[in-house]
Structure formats: structure tokens, C-alpha cells
Amino acid sequence: MFSAPSLAALADGFGRDVLWRPAVQEPIATMTDTIVAPATAPGEAAVAVVRLSGRDARVIAQALAPGRRQARVMHRATVRDAEGARIDDALVVEMPGPRSYTGEDVVELHLHGSRFVVEQVVARACALGARVAEPGEFTLRAFTSGRMDLTQAEAVIDVLAATNARQLAQANAQLGGALSERIGALLTRLEEVVAEGRASFDFPEYDTGAGLSAAHVEVVAEVVAELRGLVERARPEAKKARTVVLFGAPNVGKSSLLNAWSGTERVLVDDAPGTTRDPIEVEMTEGLQRWSVWDTAGFRAEAVGLEARGIALALERARAADLAVWVLAPDAPVWPPEGIEAKVVGGKADQASVSRRTLLEAEAQKRGLAWLGWVSARTGEGVAELRSRLSRGVDNDVRAGDIVVVRERQVAELREAVQALELALSESRAGATVDVVVASLEAGAFALGRLLGRNVDGAVLDRVFADFCIGK
Amino acid sequence: MTLDVIVVGAGHAGCEAALAASRLGARVGLVTLRADRIAQMSCNPAIGGVAKGHVVREIDALGGAMAKVADATGIQFRRLNTSRGPAVRSTRAQSDAALYRSAMTDVIASAPGVTVIEDEVVDLTSVDGRVTGVSLSRGGSLACRAVIITTGTFLNGLCHVGSEQFTGGRVGDAAALRLSSALTRLGVALGRFKTGTTPRLAADSIAWDRLEVQHGDEPRPRFSFDQVPSTLPQVPCHITHTDAATHAVIRSGLDRSPLYCGTIVGRGPRYCPSLEDKIVRFSDKESHQIFLEPEGLSSDRVYPNGLSTSLPKDVQDAFLRTIPGLEHARVLQYGYAVEYDYAQPTQLDARLMVKCALGLFLAGQINGTSGYEEAAAQGLMAGLNAVRWLGGEAPAVLGRDQAYIGVLIDDLVTKGVDEPYRLFTSRSEHRLTLRETNAEERLWQVADGWRLLSSERREAAARREAERSSLRAALAERVVDAPLAASLALSIPALTNIQGQRLADVIRRPEADPEVVMRAAALSATTDTVQLVDEDIKYAGYIAREAKQIERMRELEAFRLPASMTYLNAPGLSREVQEKLASVQPLSLGQASRIPGMTPAALALLRVHAHRAGAES
What we know:
The complex is a heterodimer.
Chain A: H1 7-16, E1 35-38, E2 47-53, H2 57-64, E3 75-80, E4 86-95, E5 106-112, H3 115-127, E6 131-132, H4 137-144, H5 150-175, H6 177-202, H7 214-233, E7 242-248, H8 254-262, E8 280-286, E9 289-295, H9 305-320, E10 323-328, E11 343-346, H10 354-366, E12 370-374, H11 383-395, H12 408-429, H13 434-452, H14 456-467
Parallel strand pairs in A: 1-6, 7-9, 7-10, 10-11, 11-12
Antiparallel strand pairs in A: 1-2, 2-5, 3-4, 4-5, 8-9
Chain B: E1 5-8, H1 12-23, E2 28-32, E3 46-48, H2 52-61, H3 66-73, E4 74-80, E5 90-95, H4 97-109, E6 114-118, E7 121-127, E8 130-136, E9 141-143, E10 146-149, E11 158-161, E12 164-167, H5 179-185, E13 190-197, E14 200-202, E15 212-214, E16 237-241, H6 244-253, H7 275-281, E17 289-294, E18 301-305, H8 313-320, E19 331-333, E20 336-343, E21 360-362, H9 372-390, H10 404-415, H11 439-449, H12 455-477, H13 482-491, H14 503-508, H15 514-520, H16 527-538, H17 540-558, H18 575-584, H19 589-593, H20 600-616
């Protein structure tokens, strides 16, 4: 079911669970690297704050949103993606350590309160060298740099302890049996290749081969292809939410519908037409899919000034949306303008008689418009059906049996694995020596190992002993 | 006689321990059951090999003796893995075992402050958990301030040949039967491991002319960075193999194998299986290689590498008759397995000192390792740390990014062992950085800071450092002019379009043989230096990639955990993690992060606890 994310769900769904890391023995986050995380719950306010802390915080912020800035003063800056395209206009404030919350260099980016924007900024910061903060890590850093006393630190312990206790359970639950099985199988194949590579230089006197065999290079290529598929189907941070634009004549109940849909009073509703001037976004999630639903200004031929601009904006949004939903009032039906692809919903269903409904549905058919159903914000009639109808349509682009990775952390590890393994393949093609190729393979295997909480080194050693007859 | 340090056992660990302590000015008693068996090679007559060669060179850079003795007594030197990349190239030498023993005995004899005592240590004395001396079987007792135990396979050693059993640390030598209970009394928990060795064959009974020959490399690769003269003639090894007939004989004898009828309880190393193990576990393999290694120039004994076994004597005789070239081989000593006591090394701190007994250090096979090189490395570090501890100095600990010795000791004291541990290059996550060629560059200044280097060695190391710097500078600065480009193109036709480039960029190209480039450019440096600088240039990208990982770990390593930390009942940490931390007592967050089962959240909690402990104390 769709539901507007509760605060708790947000904390868990975005603030925390993306931060999950399985038990690992190998690389561990250090306290000098730069961390990034949203500091505000997404979607709840007009403004969202993304915070960076650590050695490279200011360098990364400069790459994200260039500009000359004075310490502790808000500056306006444009946040851009890797291609230089604008992500958002932001207010940026740099707070050099030690006079900052964490005691380190801190930069805050005040963005528009869109989850999509926030996630793009976090992803971009990670691409520039930051990593997503562990739970409670900002506070932990504040404590360790002496910015916080012991009493306050107790709170940190609680957060960390809770995470610690939940970690393994989460690892299993969040990863999902099918996904962990799939990645586990890939890792097992990879471990065999790493074992062969290591055996070739650790036991050269036995018939372990001089390096990677062509068959093993092929295995790595297959593993990379599968992992890349998982990454491409992943729907975390940078995966855009599907946008739905509600539009229609004034006072047909668009805002009421949106409120009923999201289950909250998000949009000011009034009987006076023209209440909504600027498009308003509400985000919600249903299963794996995130939705960004826009309420827009009502269409009125006679609108002028601000209202007319709002209508123009609404049309623009509707054209760009994944789905444009025209809301129609049964008493005074106004049909969508020509040249825009829209599906129609009958609003205020509680005021529509059966005959009226039949008439309007037939009219829609005549105009070649798909009819999505009747809804009533007041009684709730049809809202659930509408949601499920929309989500059914969406799920079609994930084929049955496909495995979808949803956690940001997991996707980050998958990306790291893909990158390292592709490097191994190119090194191998370029004729690099096996010591170098194995180092890259290991980096890939370790990333998958972290994802699964598996000790790769031990597994590889077991394989070497099981597969190769070695020893004097 | 007042002694600072007593070393119990004069094997490869004991010798380096005594020598390191001596170099730091300590008065050392080296107690051995037999003074004529100092640095005996109980198993194969060889030093080095993959990862082990790295360790030997590190020992050399730290002022140890193994490399020089191996160079002086080597009778066949080879460089392994030459085609598998610079990180894993390792030196290996066949030794004349008797000459090795006498050369090391001479080094010990001339070490200032070292007294060799031929006796058996039967007990340890202590006051308030701090060792104060040892009791000897014949000579009463000796007082000292620190004891280093390097008993190898001798602690409760029990040898097996078929169903025949006899006590002994190795064939022909008595076991140390009473020391185990002394250790137990001090709180050291002991376990049981097993290892094995091959039969020794009479050289004149082998049909050499029918066997494949394996020669050493010329010029001879060497271990020590100092050029120790290698004057001994070089001899070849020979290669033969088992076949279906051999395997049939072994299968028929399995019912009398102590390994397969449950007599042996100790766990053996998987990387060094007995022949019967190989045949059972890899039953589809039709043949196993055997390397016939001479034990010395004047020795009539041959070590058939690959035939480790504890089968009954008649089975050993029978299977030897099936092996080409060994049909008439005479056995001078039968193969056997030996079970011995070891101490789980998580009971030690990073200095190799027992946590529950101040002044008691353990090094070598007693810590669950195998290999002469691993033993010698631990001995050196234990000897160094014992003296530093006596002087109230900080622990001498090598990082995992500094040396294989660092990897070895960190693995031991952090993760513990569940089979005899040996080094592999794959145990190091910083493999591309820790190379044989740069062992001295990595370690000599550290060693000098620890006062391990003689003044001559320090000067030699500094000279080599200067040579490296000037070669690097010359290569980085020198621009290829037209005549040089022409001359290089003549010797290496693939080197085109190099005019105007720096020499370093030319050397970076895989086809550029550095020696050829240097000759053409009229530059000169020793082979060692050229090789190291060439690797650094050609692999700069990979080394830089690893440097980033090392940098990431450094901060965790630098975060020291106070010794006063208590872990039991630390809020937020699981019981299992609490117990592991309490048992390992990690010195740093980095070490804590490597304890099996540690999670990032647990590590973060540990950081908070450490701060609190610091704030509260």
C-alpha cells in the first residue's frame, strides 16, 4: 500500500537503513574520512539540509557547489551533478573545525525539500569521495573531538548499541533471501578465481598455473555482467521517483485527493478556487517504488498574473510527468486541453450519481482518454483502488523474478565491486602481472563480502587448500 | 651469573632472540638441550620461498642473522615467481644444513653477552606474576628478568612412525617434558598441533641419471642486502614423482597410519599435508611431484620434498620402491609425525609477551606457527621487546603495512591459530607494497631507531638509501636527447618517440629493460637498487592505490586503546565481542577492527568507551 512515510519510517527508511553495514573485519570506516548524510527528514519540510563533515568536507562542497564563501556565512550556490547539470539552488554554509558541531570541517547544504534532490546530492558527494555516515556518526565525532560531554555521549551509545544489536538481523532481513543468495553465488564463483590467482603465486612449485586461466577471466566477466545488472535495476538514492501530476479545473478536489492519497493534511484545502498556486509535491513509497505526486494550480481560462503563471507551470509539469492525471468534477466537468496525454479520474465521487458516472465515462472514451476510476476524498472511495492500479502499472517494468537492490549502502558496495572487477579485467587484458590482477579481484570480492558479512579471506584459503594439492 | 634474558631453545627463533637481545646490550643465557644442534634444520634443508623470502630479507633489514647465514651456506639459490609480478617474487635457497648450523653457532659464539648453556629448563620461577628465573635439570637455577621460550616442537613432543610412538622433539633428540606444566601453572593454556617430515634417503642409493634436473639461478639471488660472499659450489635438485603404484601401496597402509586410525590428535597444517593426506584428499590426482634436495655438499642425506609421512616403516620402504629413481633408495631415517604443545597466541600481546605473566615471552613454533623464517622473525621481535620491556621502553611493533613480520605477529595475537600458521603473500592486504626488494628501505630506519643495527650496517643502509635517491632523482630529471633516443632505439626497438621524455617515463614502459636504459644513459647503480627503482616506477599506479588503503587504516592504528580498559560489561557490546576484546586486549582500534566478529558499530562503541576510559582515568 502507498503510505506517506512516518517519521520513524523515514529515520529507518532513509536515515538509518541505508547506513547499514554488515559485520566486516576488513576495511572499516575511519574517523578522518569525510561523511555525508541528510540532517533533516526528507519530504517533511520545504528545506532539507545535507551535512558533510571531515577532512575533505570543504573540498567536496566546492566541487558540488562552487563559489567563494566566507566561513559561517550563508552563500547561495548552484549544486551541480557530474555532467555539470543543475541539481538545485542551495544555500551553503561552511563551518571550519574545530568550531563546528563535530569539531571537524563541516559544510551544510540547505536544499529544497525534495527527496530526489537530497539523494542526488548525497550520491554526488559520495562520488566525490565522501561516504554515507554510520548511524550516530556525526554525534560520535562531536563526542570524540571533545565537543560533547559524557552525558550526551550516553545517547550516542544507545544509538550505536541499538544498531549493533540489530545489525545481523537487519543484514538478513534487509538483504532479502533471494538477493543474498544471488550475490552469495557470485561471490563463491569469484572466490574460486581469487583462490586460483593466489595459489598461482603462493604455491608456484605446484601445478597451480601461472596466472588466471581464460576460463576464470570469463567467470569474472560473467560476474561483472550480473552485478552490473543488479546495479542498473537498483532503485536507491539517484533513482528518480515516478512523478504523477494531478491537474484539472479549479476546485475539483485535486488537493483533497492528494491528502486522501497520502493520508496526511499536506495541502491547504479551501472551497475558494485557486487556493493552490505553486505546484506542491508529496512523496510516498509503495513497495520498491517511490512516487512524487504533484498538486497543481487549477485551470481557468480567465486566470491572470500569478495564477496564470501557476497554470502554465502545471501544464509544464504534466507534460514532463510519468503520469498526468486529470481530475474531473461530476457536476461541472472540464476536459483536459488538447495535445496533452492524460488519464482521467472522476473526483468528488460521493456527489456523482450512477447515471452521471456512466455518462462521463462514455464521454471520456469518446475523447480517447483512459478512465482511471472514481475517487472521493471525503469518503475515501476509490483511493486505494487508484493507488493499486497505478502501482500495478509500474511494477510491469520489473520483470518477475528480478532481484532489486534498494539500499544505498548495498548499491555502493555493488558499484565498488563492479568497478574493481572491471579494473581486474582490463589489467588482465593489458597483460598485467597476476599479483596486480589479484589485488583488484580481491577488492571486488571484499566489497561483496562486506555486503554479505562474509569473511572472504578465510573462504579463499579454504578453497586453496581444498582445490589445490599443495605443500611439501 | 646475573642474566637479563634467558632464551629457552636455540633453534631459529631462539638464535635470533638471543642475538637481538645481545645487540641491545643485554646479558643473555641461551639454554639448549644440545649445543651441537644450534639452528638445526629439523625439516627441509632450505631457507626462503614465497613470503618466507620476504621475511628473511626483513630479518636482515632488522639486523638479524638468518639472511647472512643462509647466503654463506647456500648451495642453490633461486628466485621464485619471476613472471608473476614484483610483489610475489621470492628468494629460496637450499642450505648445507651442517654448515648452516655451524655458521649460526659461530655467530652466537661471537655475540657479546650471550652465554650458551647446555641444559634443560624444567621450571619457571615467578613472583607476583612476574618471571624471575628458570630451574635447570642439571645446573640448579638461574635468575633473570625476562624469559623467552622458543621450544619449537619439543614441548611434550611425541613422535609417530606407524603405530610406533616415542617421546622426542625430533628424531634423535629428547623432548621437553616438564616445561609445559610450568607454563600451565603460570596460566598459559596449551593446545596440541602436529607436523611431519619426510624419510631421509642415502644419496648413493638414488638413480640420479634418470631424474629431471633443476638448477639454481645464475647470477645467484641472495637474501642479505649486504653482499655476503657465496663461495660454496652450487648443486642441482632433482625431480621425480609418485604414480598409481605408489598410491596403491599407501592406501593399503592407511589402516596403520597414526593419522587415519586416530592416534594423532593434534591438528596439522593443510598447506603441508602428508603424502597419505594428499592421496586420500586428492584421490583423482594420479601423480605428485617430489623434489630431491641434498642436505649438504658433504652430506650423504637427501631430503625428498613431498614425501612427508608417518606411515609404518615397511610401508615407507614399499612405496619408495615404486618411485622412479628411488627403487633402491636406502632410508637413513624414516619419515615421522610429531605432536607438540603450543600456546594459542591470542594469549600474547603484540610484543609476544604473555599477558598473564610479566616478562615471559613466547616465540616460534610454540605460538602455533611453522617454518624457520616465521620462527626467526618472532624470535627477533621477542628478543628486542624483552629488552625494551626491561628498560621501560614502548613496545616495538611492526605494522601490517610495514612488514610481513607485522602481518605475522598481528595475525597471531589478534586472530589466533587453528592450524600451524605459515605466511603466504596472500595474508598481506598490502602485498604490492611489501616486496622483497624494498625490505631494507621499509625497515632500516625503524631498526636503527630500535638500536638493532651495528654502525657498519647503519652506514651501509644509509649508503644504499642515498644510491636509491640519487638514481630516482636522475631518472626523474634526465630528459632523453636525440643521441640517447637513437642509442636506446638500437637496443630496444620498441622504444620509439622517446626523445624529450624523462628517463623515468621511458622506464615506465613495460618493454624498457632498466639495465639497458641505464647503460645507454651512462648511469650506474647496484642491481638491487635498479630492480627496486624499476618496480617502483613501473608499478607506481598500483602502489599508489594501495597507499590510499594504508592511509585509511592508519588513523585506526594510531588510535591507541589504554591498557587499563575493561571490556566485560561494556554497555552496547555483545557478550561475545566483550569476551574477545578482553582476551585479545588490542593495542589499537586498528587491531580491534581485525578481531573476528567485530562490527563497525561495535568499533564505534569501542571508540566511545576508550574516550570515556581516558576521561575517567
